[in-house]
């Protein structure tokens, strides 16, 4: 019987162990997409206790606790941090098969040096150990955690109306060597079906200095803000879409839809899709002109529990996979951009693992020599960032595309302890490649394998995004 999560955790073959320990284990991390707060980095926050770090905003953990029958009082309610931690310890004790079990224990090992098992019986000793380190160890502040993790660059997620004041302060702070750059997330300007859309447009109008009384003016305002973001080092966009739509319409019709919404009119579903298509086409062209990367995250149905949404708001653990994502429309959208030579480097992420194959075939239709794997399939994320999901995504990408050009793992988290997910991913990746080597499906070619492993871990992302970093 193997020892629980030992040094060969997930590395089930000698080839996998060699690939991980020789090449992957000590590669740095390029965190090109996350949701951590730049203010906390700027102010070098120190957390009071482990509950603040682990449970403060982690809806992954909240979902598991709810499934285990834990009262909301101990999840997002007014229970003490110690009580919440106890309930989490009792929940994770029974979390067999869930990646949270592995992630939690990796975090305890790597950041706190705890080699035991977290459960209801050990909760007090873990609480005491973690809190002592968080409060007294100089390396356990936000910046210390980032340094310990080997991170070289972080892209946060920022709205066009954001001031980017903390990015500006960090850029001038010579005491912190990790680059922290904004990433452009303009969803609120696109989602005209949501409330309060006119109020948001008023904010955008104010910060851009452009009077937004037309769709053309909206695009001009966004370009003004893109230039502001570019001045702060931004070169990456990110969009959260229901699906990648393509419903083309003429300029006059788009202007009429936008004007109708600004005047308080109700927008039909057809009008919404036409507006969003025009919006994404315009921004895609601008990304290409600026050399920015376009990331498209889609396939999520959000805020499904109306009762809890009213109580807690969005991003609290009530989202699910949406299985409606017409691949034909996504192909048509990319084709519309390439038809005018305006297709930027693009990463496609579906929350639905059943879309892996369709994405894999679409990629090959739009590649060119301007970049290795110019059109990428993004890493398995959210409901898929577990061993099975990661393995299936990389296997499909290898079967239908060019795995060697993959930009690898994204953190996609609000927690500063989540960087162990890169270790988890790298172990899964080495297990997959190692199995192919052991089974005679790929030769034991050290030169090629080193390049592939280091590329997926870090080097491919450095080259693809064009960040001012050295490859390893």
How would you explain this protein's 3D organization?
With 472 residues, the chain is an alpha/beta fold. The chain folds into two domains: 46-140, uronate isomerase, domain 2, chain A; 142-465, Metal-dependent hydrolases (TIM Barrel), CATH 3.20.20. It is 49% helix and 7% strand. It has 20 helices and nine strands. A four-stranded parallel beta sheet has the order 4-5-8-9, covered by helices on one side. Strands 1-2-3 form a three-stranded parallel beta sheet.
List the helices and strands and how they pair.
Elements: H1 14-24, E1 29-31, H2 38-42, H3 50-54, H4 59-67, H5 81-92, H6 99-112, H7 123-136, H8 142-148, E2 151-155, H9 165-171, E3 179-181, H10 187-190, H11 197-208, H12 215-231, E4 236-241, H13 251-262, H14 269-290, E5 293-298, E6 300-301, H15 306-312, E7 320-321, H16 327-338, E8 346-350, H17 356-363, E9 375-377, H18 387-400, H19 420-438, H20 446-465
Helix pairs in contact: 1-19, 1-20, 11-12, 17-18, 18-19
């Amino acid at each position: 019987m193997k020892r629980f999560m030992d040094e060969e955790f997930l590395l089930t073959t000698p080839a996998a162990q060699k690939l991980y320990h020789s090449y992957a284990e000590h590669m740095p991390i390029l965190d090109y997409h996350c949701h951590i707060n730049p203010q906390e980095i700027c102010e070098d926050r120190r957390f009071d206790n482990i509950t603040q770090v682990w449970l403060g905003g982690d809806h992954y953990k909240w979902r598991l606790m709810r499934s285990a029958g834990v009262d909301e009082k101990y999840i997002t309610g007014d229970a003490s941090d110690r009580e919440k931690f106890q309930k989490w310890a009792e929940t994770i004790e029974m979390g067999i098969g869930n990646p949270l079990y592995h992630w939690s224990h990796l975090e305890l090992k790597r950041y706190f040096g705890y080699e035991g098992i977290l459960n209801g019986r050990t909760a007090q000793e873990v609480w005491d150990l973690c809190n002592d380190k968080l409060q007294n160890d100089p390396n356990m502040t936000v910046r210390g955690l980032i340094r310990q993790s080997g991170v070289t660059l972080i892209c946060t997620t920022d709205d066009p109306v954001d001031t980017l004041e903390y990015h500006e302060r960090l850029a001038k702070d010579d005491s912190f060597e990790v680059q922290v750059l904004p990433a452009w997330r303009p969803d609120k300007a696109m989602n005209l079906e949501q409330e309060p859309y006119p109020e948001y447009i008023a904010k955008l109008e104010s910060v851009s200095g452009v009077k937004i009384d037309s769709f053309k003016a909206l695009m001009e305002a966004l370009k003004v803000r893109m230039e502001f973001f570019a001045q702060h080092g931004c070169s990456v966009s990110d969009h959260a879409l229901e699906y990648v739509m393509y419903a083309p319409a003429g300029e006059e019709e788009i202007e009429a839809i936008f004007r109708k919404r600004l005047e308080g009119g109700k927008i039909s579903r057809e009008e919404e899709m036409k507006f969003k298509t025009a919006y994404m086409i315009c921004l895609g062209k601008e990304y290409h002109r600026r050399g920015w990367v376009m990331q498209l995250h889609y396939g999520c149905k959000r805020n499904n529990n109306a009762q809890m949404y009213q109580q807690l708001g969005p991003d609290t653990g009530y989202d699910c996979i949406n299985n409606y994502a017409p691949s034909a429309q996504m192909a048509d959208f990319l084709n519309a951009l390439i038809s005018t030579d305006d297709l930027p480097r693009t990463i496609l992420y579906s929350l639905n693992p059943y879309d892996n194959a369709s994405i894999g075939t679409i990629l090959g239709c739009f590649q060119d020599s301007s970049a290795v794997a110019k059109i990428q399939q993004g890493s398995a994320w959210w409901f898929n960032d577990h061993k099975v999901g990661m393995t299936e995504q990389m296997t499909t990408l290898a079967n239908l595309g060019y795995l060697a050009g993959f930009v690898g793992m994204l953190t996609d988290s609000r927690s500063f302890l989540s960087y162990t997910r890169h270790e988890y991913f790298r172990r899964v990746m080495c297990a997959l490649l190692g199995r192919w080597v052991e089974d005679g499906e790929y030769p034991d070619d050290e030169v090629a394998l080193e390049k592939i492993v280091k590329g997926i871990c870090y080097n491919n992302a450095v080259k693809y995004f064009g960040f001012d970093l050295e490859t390893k």
